[in-house]
Design goal:
Aminopeptidase; MshD_Acetyltransferase; 164 residues; Acyl_CoA_acyltransferase; transferase; GNAT_dom; acyltransferase activity, transferring groups other than amino-acyl groups
Length: 164
Amino acid sequence: MHIRKETPEDAAEIRQVTETAFRPVAYSNQKEGEIVDALRAAKALTLSLVAEENGQILGHVAFSPILIDGENKGWYGLGPVSVHPDRQGEGIGGKLIREGLAILRREGAKGCVLLGDPGYYGRFGFKADSRLKLPGVPAEYFQCLAFGPDMPEGDVAYNAAFDT
């Protein structure tokens, strides 16, 4: 298995893997595939990585810019991240996340946020921090990871694609 940036030819397979991965998830609104497509269409898919094996996409992770109090401060949102159900539990999602975070750091990003399970995302260094808030979301599920010493403060807004 190897991880690479998506190509235009990957879009349909990414959507299929994303929809398949989220289909059994109780808290999902089943819009994750549409969100990835909308981010791509809006040119807001800053980083899109796939895990591929024998020509088949097994997983995907998306990173897109966020605003903090209405300003671009060099921070990004992680998600959706998906792995085909037949291959979940093998560490594919973790490899995608680690590679994506490493690329963001190398490219000068200031940090990353996500909405997700603290028990899972804590292993990557994410944690809740009261200085960054996502209105309407329980604080413990909105987590951040600063890539340097500075932590901004304010309300976070994701790209409008997440309103899909």
